[in-house]
Amino acid sequence: MINSTGGVSGFSLSRLASLVILASVAAPCADHPGDAVAAQPAVTSVTQITRDGVSKTNLLSDESSLYVSEWPAARHLVARLSLQGADRSVISNAIPNVQALDISADRSKLLVTPMQGSVDSEFWTLPVHAGSPQRVGDLTGRDAAWSADGKQLVFGKGSKLFVAKADGTSPHDVFTAAGSVFGARFSRDGKRIRFTVGNTDQNTTAIWEVDSDGSNPHAVLGSWQSASSACCGNWTADGRYYIFQVSQSAPTAITTLWALSESGSGTPIQLTHGPMSFGNASPSADSKKIWAIGVQPFGETVKYDAAAKSFVPLLSSVSATDLDYSSDGKWVTYVSVPDATLWRCRADGSERLQLTSSPERVALPRWSRDGSRIAYVSMQPGNPARISIISRAGGDAQDILKESRGQIDANWSADGSHILFGYFVGSAALDIRTIDLKTHEVTTIPGSQGLFSPRWSPNGKYIAALSPDFTKVMLFDFQTQKWTVWLAEPAGAVNYPDWSADSQYLFFDDLVTDEESIRRVKVGESRAERVFKLEGIERYPGPFGLWSGRTADGSWMFVRDRSTQEVYQLSVALP
Q1: How far is the C-alpha of 236 from the C-alpha of 44, rounded, in Å?
Q2: Is pTM, for the whole model, over 0.90?
Q3: Shortest CA distance to 167 belongs to which of 152, 181, 154?
Q4: How do strand 152-157 and strand 386-391 relate by DSSP bridges?
Q5: Are 152 and 118 in contact (CB under 8 A)?
Q6: CA 205, 211, 216 angle in degrees (round to 5)?
Q7: Which among 131, 239, 248, 366 would be 20 to 30 A from 381, CA to CA?
Q8: Strand (E) positions, 158-261?
Q9: Residue 575 and residue 37 in contact, taking contact as beta carbons nearer than 8 Å
Q10: Distance (Å, rounded) from C-alpha 145 to C-alpha 501?
Q11: Rounded to an integer, what distance in angstroms lies between the CA atom of residue 325 and that of residue 323?
Q12: Contact 486, 473 (CB under 8 A)
């Protein structure tokens, strides 16, 4: 996903099936607890299975055991959890970094893929007890799965959907989508395939279906209101229901499970309603249970201690991102995780005040120089993002300019009379503008067409911005009224650029060049230098990628991922 604050967020749709629930609210729930029989599909109880705090991705079951792809540190492994005694063991294999995709019909082996860092990976089989892993032909792709009879294999590769024999021979494409294909599953009779198509440009996912011979392709959910945010489904063992997940951002960020009847009206029924989020559903053989991963997101803001090369927590017990300190360092504003509301408090965490509420979601707040007001990105359902201003004391916020393009990246002038801002990448037109907050006069910066992610230097002399191909940092000099190429970097290398207090350097978070690091470039020079390498932190993915910022004294801030991901058993009634 492209990050309008500069660069690339670091995600790909190949990981969406396992990461999409990370932006969700948490706490166990049950729909209609105690109901033995329901007129429509419902969750009757929820039981937590694991309590280890380890990050988890894929989840499979064979009725006696669960096979969970875990991410305890820098590598993935597959753990087996006994459903009888809750015993846990790691499945030994010669593949050091692996994720489980499916389990064979006879429950003797897993279909796995090495986590190689690329979009397409090899496929292997891994015995669940004893034996060596075996390569599945010479196939590469993503999210493979077997048919119920174990004779066929389906997988995605780029925008194409492929079918092959179970041993990997005779692969052939059966459908080409307008986007990336992942999460493919055969129907129980093997006659149909359902899969997810992700569109990065529109930031959408949709569930599609095609006959196994490639005929009759169509979107499954049609004009259903949540069709563009649905993904990652699987049929129940009896084939009567298709269980999938939907992610929403308003009024709160949450991922829910839904059931689509194969014989009913075609209208999905919501199984979970929050506040817990669920994903990666794995239905049981008797269709009376669903195992799923539930997530409690928590973003711990930390400050980097350069001397100790360690991270020090800020705002104890507050789950937050997008921090901004007032120029005197006495106040801080932040965006809460996961509900994305705006708060402010003293630097020590006292005098907390909530400034916005759902369904509005906010991002990237910025203090005025005198500390009296906060500008932020306001995102209301059904409307383009707008920059709004609110008093430190709270009250009604005011949009700076009503228009049809999504505004982002508010920059205050030193005297607080003007705001410089840009637009989301993907808008009909990109440029950089200033607005006079008293007269409401709007001025377009000369030559800024196509540029985004503006940063106004503290001394007011320069603007730094990114080129439309994401590879150049451009510098505007107010005195000469001209843009020049300041720095050329690989696409995605410049994230969350930030000026030094003396306006001599531009710092940025480099996620793609060599090792992840903070770098800087000096005005008048064209080569960036490393400030420090970023290591020893698992970062939380915010609404615009991996956020970084700086405190009033120039220390770097990041958001450490303290989310918990646990396995739950959902008892369900599926009439």
Answers
A1: 17
A2: no
A3: 152
A4: unpaired
A5: no
A6: 80
A7: 366
A8: 160-165, 172-176, 180-186, 192-199, 204-211, 218-219, 230-235, 241-248, 254-261
A9: yes
A10: 54
A11: 7
A12: yes
Spatial separation of the C-alpha atoms in residues 118 and 133, rounded to whole Å: 21
- The residues near 382 (Cβ < 8 Å, ≥ 6 apart) are none
**Token code pair at residue 18:** 């396992």
Q: What one-character-per-residue DSSP string does 241-260 give?
A: EEEEEEEE-SSS-EEEEEEE
Q: Which of 460, 456, 542, 453 is nearest to 493 (CA)?
A: 453
For 93, the token pair is 């294999």
The number of residues in the chain equals: 575
Q: What is the rounded CA–CA span in Å between residue 111 and residue 124?
A: 6
Sheet containing 564-573: give its strands across: 42-48, 564-573, 289-296, 277-283
CB 366 within 8 A of CB 324: yes
Residue 151 structure tokens: 């004779």
Instruction: Say if CB 188 and CB 235 are below 8 A apart.
Output: yes
